[in-house]
Design goal:
Blueprint (H helix, E strand, L loop, with lengths): L1 E2 L5 H4 L4 H12 L26 E2 L7 H7 L10 H19 L6 E4 L4 H15 L7 E5 L4 H11 L6 E3 L44 E4 L5 H8 L13 H8 L6 H7 L4 E3 L5 H8 L15 H7 L22 H12 L2 H5 L6 H10 L7 H17 L1
Parallel strand pairs: 1-2, 3-4, 3-6, 4-5, 6-7
Helix pairs in contact: 2-15, 4-5, 4-11, 5-11, 7-8, 14-15
């Protein structure tokens, strides 16, 4: 049975980790926790999983359709940067047309960054060409709102098609939702943030599609600055793709989280069309331009009538505030959890939350992941 936390689950229509855990629980009548994960210093391998009987796999790299250019080293693109940008844009455009669903409204989680700009520019181009996008709404959150609004205006979207989430004074992202905390045990608590709940109420997500630009820039931006991979696992023999996916410490787990909530999820940068583009990415294109954008994404943006490259990318100085009341609620959920009752050696609530608060929103917050795992355990038991 597969955990597809590091997979192209959205496009392969495969099980998420939650799906796999539910099936295992239904078949065996019980689940067994992998005790290795109780050690904060444990570093899981590519296949390790917190639940025994479930193995983490990467199915897209064994898919015969992808094997030719992923298992093999591949060949660098031989054309110009402009030709590469045009190829990347057309492949993304074809991918969106193929997977678009007008039967459900689309929520696009849009930042003010280059990845989002590319995708919304493609959608604006499709709109102007007469392609039916159905109902679409672009949603951003602060501190990127002002820049985001300029992007929307220049692309020609109507005012009722985009908005910026109005942060409440407390619990800005409503973090800690026990019943809707996500499906992956590897992600930090803040990835349970919901900044669209005023637009798409809890429980109504299944009537909507979701789209985002996750995974777009890492292949070129991280490669340009020479950022070291987060994980040492060998995914495939193609160097650019290997490096790209090595930057995702949690794979595409967040995509799996939201896919469990929405009717359909589109993350075009994780689609096979864009992977083919990354597989041919030559090192000579890994540079920055004076405007602050890397050459690859700048070349894609220049294929549109308005490149938007004159608009600086706003800093992402997020505020991840959680009120005392929210912390108490989260701790109360954990204290009454099946995970704490059933897993030998599970950390006590006071210990877990003291560690979580001390290291909140750090990259490897073991306590946050344990809390999310306990919430997932609860979901499986309730199924």
């Amino acid at each position: 049975m597969n955990d597809l936390g590091v997979s192209l689950h959205s496009h392969n229509n495969e099980d998420t980790f939650l799906d796999a855990a539910k099936k295992l629980n239904a078949a065996a009548g019980e689940m067994h926790f992998n005790p290795k994960y109780l050690d904060p210093n444990f570093e899981p391998s590519r296949t390790d999983s917190p639940i025994l009987g479930i193995e983490r796999t990467i199915p897209q790299f064994t898919d015969p359709k992808l094997a030719n250019y992923l298992i093999a080293p591949g060949a660098d693109f031989v054309g110009t940067l402009e030709e590469y940008g045009q190829m990347a844009k057309l492949r993304l455009k074809a991918h969106l047309k193929k997977h678009w669903d007008v039967a459900h409204p689309m929520l696009f989680l849009h930042s003010n960054g280059y990845d989002s700009r590319i995708l919304s520019s493609i959608l604006a181009e499709l709109r102007d060409e007469g392609f039916d996008l159905g109902t679409i709404h672009f949603r951003c959150h602060e501190p990127e709102g002002a820049s985001f609004k300029v992007i929307m205006q220049r692309q020609g979207w109507k005012p009722d098609q985009y908005s910026v989430f109005k942060d409440p004074e407390k619990d800005i992202f409503d973090i800690g939702r026990w019943g809707n905390c996500g499906t992956s045990p590897w992600l930090p608590v803040t990835t349970a943030a919901n900044f669209w709940r005023d637009l798409v109420p809890y429980g109504d997500e299944k009537h909507w599609n979701l789209m985002g630009g996750t995974g777009g820039g890492e292949a070129c931006e991280y490669g340009t600055i020479g950022k070291a991979p987060f994980v040492p696992w060998q995914y495939c023999g193609n160097k650019p793709v290997q490096l790209w996916f090595s930057y995702f410490a949690d794979g595409t787990d967040w995509a799996a989280d939201v896919e469990a909530l929405f009717h359909k999820v589109l993350f075009p940068y994780f689609g096979d069309a864009h992977i083919r583009t990354v597989a041919a990415l030559p090192p000579r294109f890994l540079k920055y331009e004076e405007n602050g954008c890397d050459m690859v994404r700048a070349s894609i943006l220049r294929t549109f009538k308005d490149s938007l490259l004159d608009l600086p990318r706003a800093p992402r100085t997020y505020s991840w505030s959680i009120s005392s009341a929210r912390w108490m609620e989260m701790q109360a959920h954990y204290e009454g959890s099946a995970f704490l009752r059933e897993v030998p050696g599970a950390p006590g609530a006071e210990q877990l939350f003291a560690t979580m608060k001390k290291n909140f929103f750090t990259k490897d917050n073991w306590a946050e992941r344990m809390w999310r795992l306990a919430a997932l355990w609860e979901k499986v038991r309730a199924a």
